[in-house]
Design goal:
Number of domains: 4
Number of helices: 13
Helix content: 25-40%
Protein name: McrBC 5-methylcytosine restriction system component
Shape: globular
Low-confidence stretches: 1-7, 113-169, 471-489
Pfam families: McrBC
Mean pLDDT: 76
Radius of gyration: 27 Å
InterPro entries: McrC
Distance between the termini: 54 Å
Strand order of the largest sheet: 11-14-15-16-18-17
Largest sheet: 6 strands, mixed
Length: about 525
């Protein structure tokens, strides 16, 4: 991995499906060098051109694809790609419509320039809410390094107004998209994001790589407060005194002419163990990145505390040596972060890990996880919410089941053994159109799929859930406006099944409010509770 220091002007923010070229990169780099911009773009092209080992579908073209006029275009994966030269491309969710096209943001980075910048080391007095009712502050390390940040992105404080504390506040599109992405990452089940206590920071003002570094450092500081683990390790050394067990063969070989020495093996209770070595290696990796002064200071303090522990000489070997006992439970999240940074373990496999560092997420899966998480939270235990359930098949041919169906979300009552399906939902990360002439952009196949789910599960109620992007029908849509009932009340399809003794299926198309997901989830469950579909 490249060790070049990154400046705060070394990041380009784009939206999914947005294209970019050398001119966009040149605009955001500090020295505006065309030659440097061309080199960075070439590195990103090399990343995009990496092929899969066995299947072309595994290549990096699923993340970035060549586009017209010597440009590259992002697809439906969000996250970051850092090149060997240290330049970082951030791909954010497209959380806003544009009036005439779907190219993405009209801006390249945060432009909340109407607010005054605060000093990079000034603690913030407010919290960023990552889920209602969860305002826990990360415990600061000695000296206050764990306190909130007042740093700005690209020299600008997007939130000088302390009343602006949510995605509803006066943020630019980039800040809002990044905050929504972080909210979604928090709902992933098998990831270190789920347990990260990041509600104390206006963290979306930072480049994504620094955001992830801050999450890692928070866990490091928690470990330090609880105590760095030590363990007994067998150490073989050629000593001037006898300690432990004398290794006769090795001693004879090494000390034939040095009778005053003893080559022996002894059990040492030390902190230089595999998990700690991996943490040190991750700290060293992050120290080579040009983060804000406050984050860099936290990294330096962590390096000082772990100074007596060597970095890992063999990453894979040390991961294999990491114990999984309860004694090391405090290390679980930290080691997950270490895998991301040291093994380049992205949540989507990519090719050419030696050419770039990438951390990418499928927006379809992120949106599904986001909706399901808030439905579970809103249900309060009254319902059992399952995702990607694979119990049913569409057909049975000669006793063999064919065409397995996997609805995104299945909701059952929890008080009857989980047999009664209350509703089925499918999530679609797609921006609906404001024009009724094309059925608002709803795919016919999606409706067929939902009615197949409802028929096989003998379920009356179904939801096809799309994201509420910006405000459909608001002033930013200049050419056409969606009907008022589409924006607020949504609309419902009803169809009768040909199967006997089945009630008509009711399929509701609705928009899920990304800025107030709890309200959106409560709305769905309220309709189920009131049987108002």
């Amino acid at each position: 991995m490249n060790q070049t220091k990154m400046s705060k002007n070394n990041t380009l923010c784009i939206a999914e499906w947005q294209s970019f070229g050398t001119d966009d990169i040149q605009e955001v780099i500090a020295d505006k060098s065309e030659k440097k911009a061309q080199k960075i773009f070439s590195e990103l092209q090399n990343f995009a051109n990496q092929k899969g080992n066995f299947d072309d579908r595994e290549g990096n073209h699923i993340f970035l694809t060549p586009y017209r006029n010597n440009r590259l275009k992002a697809r439906n994966f969000v996250g970051l790609i850092q090149t060997k030269s240290g330049f970082c491309l951030e791909i954010l969710p497209k959380t806003f419509c544009t009036a005439k096209n779907s190219d993405g943001f009209a801006i390249k980075n945060c432009v909340c320039s109407s607010q005054k910048s605060t000093h990079p080391l000034t603690p913030s007095a407010t919290n960023l809410t990552f889920g209602e009712g969860e305002q826990e502050k990360a415990p600061p390390l000695a000296g206050g390094v764990g306190e909130g940040y007042g740093a700005s992105q690209n020299g600008v404080d997007c939130h000088a107004n302390k009343q602006n504390d949510s995605t509803k506040s006066q943020q630019c599109q980039v800040c809002q998209a990044k905050q929504i992405l972080l909210n979604m990452l928090r709902t992933l089940r098998t990831s270190p994001f789920k347990q990260s206590h990041i509600s104390n920071l206006k963290i979306h003002r930072f480049p994504l790589l620094e955001v992830f570094a801050i999450m890692f450092l928070d866990e490091v500081e928690r470990l330090i407060k609880r105590g760095i683990k030590s363990d007994y390790v067998v150490r073989e050394e050629n000593r001037t005194f006898l300690k432990g067990k004398l290794l006769f063969g090795e001693n004879l070989k090494r000390n034939f002419a040095h009778k005053e020495r003893f080559f022996s093996a002894s059990d040492e209770f030390i902190a230089d163990i595999a998990p700690n070595r991996l943490i040190v290696s991750t700290i060293l990796f992050l120290s080579a990145q040009g983060f804000s002064p406050r984050t860099s200071g936290r990294i330096s303090q962590a390096r000082f505390i772990f100074a007596d522990i060597r970095p890992s000489k063999s990453i894979d070997k040390d991961f294999a040596l990491c114990p999984s006992s309860r004694h090391y439970k405090d290390y679980e999240l930290l080691l997950a972060w270490c895998k991301i940074f040291l093994r380049r373990k992205s949540f989507m496999p990519y090719q050419g890990g030696d050419k770039a560092f990438a951390l990418l997420f499928d927006m379809n899966k992120l949106f599904e996880s986001f909706v399901a998480w808030h439905l579970k939270r809103a249900s309060g235990g009254k319902y059992v919410i399952s995702t990607q359930e694979s119990r049913k098949y569409l057909l049975e041919v000669g006793g063999a089941r064919k065409f397995q169906i996997k609805p995104d979300i299945v909701c059952r009552k929890s008080d009857n053994g989980g047999n009664n399906v209350v509703f089925i939902a499918d999530t679609k990360w797609k921006i609906l159109e404001s024009s009724e002439s094309n059925n608002y952009g709803i795919a016919q196949g999606d409706l067929y799929q939902m009615f197949a789910y409802l028929a096989k599960y003998e379920c009356e109620n179904g939801f096809l859930i799309y994201p509420q992007i910006g405000e459909i029908g608001a002033s930013e849509i200049e050419d056409t406006k969606a009907p008022q009932d589409f924006t607020h009340k949504h609309f419902t399809y009803k169809a009768k099944s040909n199967l006997p003794n089945q009630n008509p299926h009711k399929l509701q198309i609705l928009l899920f409010n990304l800025r107030n997901p709890s309200e959106a989830a409560n709305e769905i469950l309220a309709q189920i509770n009131a049987k108002s579909l």
